[in-house]
Amino acid sequence: MSVAHPIDHAWVSTGGTGAQNYDEFADDAEITAIITQNPASALAIEMPHRHPDAVAAGQTFTQALPDAARRLRQAQEAGAYRPVERAIGVYRISGADSVAYGVFCMIDTDQISTSADEPGLVIRNEDVFVEKVRERVALAEATGHLLSPVLLLQSGRGEELHTALVELTGRLGPADVTDIDQAGRRHEVWMLTEGAEADRILELAGGGELIVADGNHRSLAAQIGGLPRFLAVVTTPASVVIRPYNRLVSELTLPAEEVLERLTAAGGQVEPLSGRPEVPTDRDVVHLYLSQRGGYAVRLPAGEGSIVDRMAHTIVERELFRDALGLDPGDKRITYVGGDYPASWLCDEVDAGRAQLAVLIAPVSVDDFVQVNLARLKMPRKSTWFTPKARAGLVLAAL
After folding, report:
1. Which of 58, 70, 149, 291 could link 356 by a cystine bridge, Cβ 3.0 to 4.6 Å?
2. Count of structural domains, the chain
3. Longest dimension (CA), the chain
4. Cβ pair 190, 90 in contact under 8 A
5. What is the DSSP string of 58-86?
6. pTM for the whole thing?
7. 3-state secondary structure of 117
8. Per-residue pLDDT tens over the stretch 356-399
9. Does residue 368 fall inside a structural domain?
């Protein structure tokens, strides 16, 4: 029996509501700017405390939740979304140099597995920030809907699913909703109600182990909130790439020279770089950009243990953040910056004085990511920035 199911009560955008997911931003002010430019954006519901009115009133996330629920009701009543019963959403994302495919559906929450001894076909193996999970639970309870999907990678029947979606989107005609994202990619969704074709797609989508590629917080929120199923986009390995996931530190806890000395004492090899650094291509090297000092290449001390223990993200968390700077990875002085932001942007933040350190880390490969998850090992937090990302506010699931 498949773990993938139709959305019992779906709401499909009629246009203009699509948005980046709430956790794709390095600066919350960007969210406010997007909502100001497009009040219909799903971000006005997903991040209600970043709405211009809430910012002006100094509201917290919790205080702004009633407004989130009200905005969603008003959008539905105004026709910004239309209801569709018992349906799946066939999804295509077309960029300048690639096309990605997936399917909007519901996935059984009790299939989530977080360790080798926990049964389940949905594998989630990345640390999360508890505060963000609580916010997702509260939003679902306040609005009665799920607005953004968990991105799941189909590891078993991914090739079959990919082939089926390519064929299907090629003959379905005009999409039910089309949206253009910030990078110019075209997002199209075709809603299929119950029938042989929908059943075939669901069988393929749920036909092997599903790995959480994006949406660790949303999937855990479904568990904590007691939801029997959660909204997902099941995609294929051929549809995605992993880009760098870098870090910014707003305030150092000791002088920059001492940071470099501690990394050297821990076994790292530190070499100055000429000019601003780029993201390294060598996975054993990270690039640092320090305020008033410039760039450095650090060949990391060799990690021991599993493939995860030897990953650069793990070593940075242990040797740089915890041991050298004395910072917990969840410290508010650390910002995790996804691959939509180039290395030049991080360096600009340092040069402008808004950060004192940028840490540039080579991306994880899709193959390594799949192998780590199938082995039920835990990925370092914020180590995989999958692209293209599923768009929020295109297909909603009423709870």
Report:
1. 291
2. 2
3. 65
4. yes
5. T--HHHHHHHHHHHHHHHHHTTSEEEEEE
6. 0.84
7. coil
8. 999 999 999 888 888 888 888 888 888 988 889 999 999 999 99
9. no
Give yes or no: residues 356 and 224 share one domain: no
Residue 221 sits in the same domain as residue 285: no
Nearest to 358 by CA among 258, 204, 245, 197: 245
- Please tell me the distance from the alpha carbon of residue 84 to that of residue 4, in angstroms, as a whole number: 17
Is 213 inside a domain boundary? yes
For the chain, the straight-line distance linking the first and the last C-alpha, in angstroms and rounded, comes to 22
Range of the domain at 136: 4-242+385-392
- Read off the pLDDT of residues 16-71 as tens digits, 9 standing for 90 and up: 999 998 888 888 999 999 999 999 999 999 999 999 999 999 999 999 999 999 99
Q: Are 179 and 18 in contact (CB under 8 A)?
A: yes
Q: What is the pLDDT of residues 90-144, one digit of tens each?
A: 999 999 889 999 999 999 999 999 887 888 999 997 777 889 999 999 999 999 9
**Tokens describing residue 307:** 């493939």
Same domain, 199 and 294: no
The residues with which 150 forms a beta bridge, in sequence order, are 232
pLDDT, averaged across the chain: 94
Looking at the fold, whether 267 and 138 belong to one and the same domain comes out as: no
Name 250's Cβ contacts closer than 8 Å, sequence gap at least 6: 333, 334, 335, 354, 355, 356
Rounded to whole angstroms, the Cα distance separating 71 from 19 reads 15
Cβ-based burial of 163 (10 A; exposed 0-12, middle 13-18, buried ≥19): middle
The CATH number of the domain holding residue 11 is 3.90.1530.10
The pair of structure tokens assigned to 107 is 């996935």
Residues 224 and 210 in one domain: yes
